Amino acid sequence: MKGDISTPPGGRRGKMKNVSIPAMICVAKNNKERNTDVQKNTKSKHTVYASRLIIERKWNQMIDSRTHLSVREVAKQLAIPESTLRYELKHGCSEGVFCMYLPLEHRYQYFPYSADLAEQNTMLLASNKGARMKIINHFVTQFEEYLEEWRSIPAAYQMMLNEHPEWKGRTPSLRTIYYHATTTLASSEAFTKYYREYHHRKQKKDIEVAKNHKPERTIEHLPKEVREGKPIGYFQMDLVVSGTKGKGGLLVLANPGHKEFIFIRKINDLRRKTVHRALRSIVKETTEKGITITHILTDNGTEFTDTKKVEKITRAMLFYTHAYAAWEKGYVENSNRLIRRFYPKTTDFSRLIAKDIAILQYKLAHYPRSSQIKQEGAA
Predict the structure, then answer these.
(1) Cβ distance 318 to 296 under 8 Å?
(2) Residue among 184, 193, 195, 188 nearest 153 (CA)
C-alpha cells in the first residue's frame, strides 16, 4: 500500500515493520540527545586527539572505579561504534592488549589506555600507507644498514634474516624488495647504489687455445669426482688486478664446495716472484688450519704459467682452463665479482693494509651465495 509506514523510503522491507509513529519520533528524539563529545568516524574523518583524551578519561575512570563494563557498553556511553573503540584500545594500550582473562581468579584484568600512545601508533601506521605499505619505514631503515655493510640486496637480506630469525615470514620477500628498489625506494641512495641487474653472457664458440702457453694438464684432465664432488683439497685460483692507475692486485684461492675456505693475499706487483711469495703465505695458512691442497684450477695468466714452481710451492696438481673460458672456474670469478663490490675497478690494491685484507677475507667467507639463498628459500 502506498504510504504504508511499515515500508521505509529506501524500499527495504521488514526492518521497521510494525513500528508506530510515536515510537519512530522517540527514536529520532533520542538520537539527537545522544552524547556527541567523541567525534564520529565517517569515511572521510578519523578520530582526533581530543576524542582520544575523552576515551582515555572514560576508560581509565571505569578501571579505577572497578565498575567493569563491556567494550560495547563503553562505546554506547561514548556514542561511537564498538569497532572504533576496539581499534583505539588496541593501539592505545601497552602491547596492544586491553583486556585479559585470569583463569585462577575467574575475572578479567583491564589495562589502562593512553591517548598519546594511540596517537603515536596511528601516525606511524599512517606514514606506512600507500605504495610503500609492504616496505615499511622501520624495515627500510634496518635494511639500509645491512646494505651498506654487505653491498648487495640478496646478501644483506640473507644476513639480516640470519641475525634475526624471528623476522622470517614477517618481512617482505626478496622479490618484493627488488620490485620496490626500482619504484618506491628509488629515492633511497643505498638501494639505488647497490641495485644491479646482471645479464648472463653468451659463451663464445670455437675458442682458440693461447699460442704462448701450452699447458700439460687442462680442465679436461681434472678428475670428474673432483670437479663434481668439490672436496676440501680442490681450489680455484685467480688474480684481481688494480685499476689503470694502480699497482698490484689480490691473489684469491677459493674452494667451490666450502665457501668458508677462501684465502686472499695482497701483491704489490704482478711479477711471478711476488705471486709465488703470496702463494707461500696462503699455503702456510692452509697448513695451520689442517687443509691439504690437492688440486688447483687456474687460468693461463703469465703469473701462473710456471707450472713446476707453483706445484712445488703448493704440493698440488695444477690444471688450466681454456683460453677465454672464465666460466670454467666460475666460483672464483664470482668471488672476484664480490670483491669488486667492496673495492671497485679504480682501487689501487697496493694501498691496502693487512687489516683491510683480513676484513675482506672474513666477509667473503661469510657472504651469502645465491645457491644458499635459493636453497633456504625453497625450504
Answers:
(1) yes
(2) 195
Question: Residues 285-302: pLDDT tens digits?
Answer: 999 999 999 999 999 888
Q: What is the β-pairing status of strands 107-110 and 234-241? A: unpaired
Strand-strand pairing, 262-267 and 249-254? antiparallel
* β-bridge partners, 263: 253
Is the torsion defined by CA of 7, 8, 13, 16 positive or negative? negative
Q: How far apart are CA 78 and CA 214, in angstroms?
A: 91
Cell of 104: 585462577
Phi, psi of 313 (to 5 degrees): -70, -45
Alpha helices in 65-183 (DSSP H): 71-78, 82-92, 115-127, 137-150, 153-163, 174-181
Residue type, 59: W
Cα gap 306→298, rounded to integer Å: 12
Cα angle at 291 between 290 and 293, to 5 degrees?
Answer: 150
pTM: 0.54
CATH fold of 219-378, please?
A: Nucleotidyltransferase; domain 5 (3.30.420)
Distance CA 321, CA 326 (A): 8
Domain boundaries, the chain: 49-125, 130-194, 219-378
CATH, range 49-125: 1.10.10
